[in-house]
Amino acid sequence: MKQEKLETISNLFEGNEIRSIWDSEKEEYYFSVVDVIGALTDSNNPRNYWNMLKKRMTDEENSELSTKCVQLKMKAQDGKMRETDTLDTKGILRLIESVPSPKAEPFKVWLANLGSERIDEVFDPEIAIKRAISYYRKRGYSDKWIEARLKGILDRNKLTDIWKEGGIREDYEYGILTNEIYKEWSGMKASEYKVYKGIRKESLRDNMSDIEVALTDLGEIATRELAKEHKPYGLKQNKKIAKMGGHAAKVARDDIEKNLGKSVISNENALNYQYIAESKQIENK
Question: Rounded to two decimals, what is the model's pTM?
């Protein structure tokens, strides 16, 4: 596992300190289980509490949660790096559901409400669209930008539908093809582009300039039309078409930069915070 930027997230769980590690390859946080247990219970020994809970979950509940733990080194109270059980975000939420403590109840209510909202969206998808629009408005995006963003999502789905017709089935294959487009016009894979912009789990397109979004869209639309025309099948043939689509965006980028006299690739993002490597904390800009 390639790990990047060991950090501590403070002021979580009513001010309790929850240690975490960011895995840049999987784009996922891993949280210390004993820290979460300590925040949610009155136990004087969270490690023993976790060991007993693991045994109960394995023996009585037939839960696989304990097997999903990843042992990672984190800084202990004595300042030394020691291995400790960690879970990703999904695993931590599942852990909260399993902790029989009054302190865990607010989290359980929140999870129940969240599940209810998602079920409502299955019956009425417009609810999800309205939620997305509200989310973007609260973050200062204009209605014109939001309209273009939603259209971009639809265009992206059209491309993945074409890829599916061309024999693409696995998630990693979609990722490979997307990276072919990005690498061809920007010189970076999507994950590398996110690192360049200083973002992690945040959406790359939400943090692009108008020109960057336009070039991304152009690369994907060109790939879609080329795939419809040439009908590639399988990963190898689709990679070739994706590279051709990305090249169309590269030609446009080169022409724009020639006239602008500067690069259109920007490390700017739309966040109101930044990840600081030195302190390993999230800090307000």
Answer: 0.76
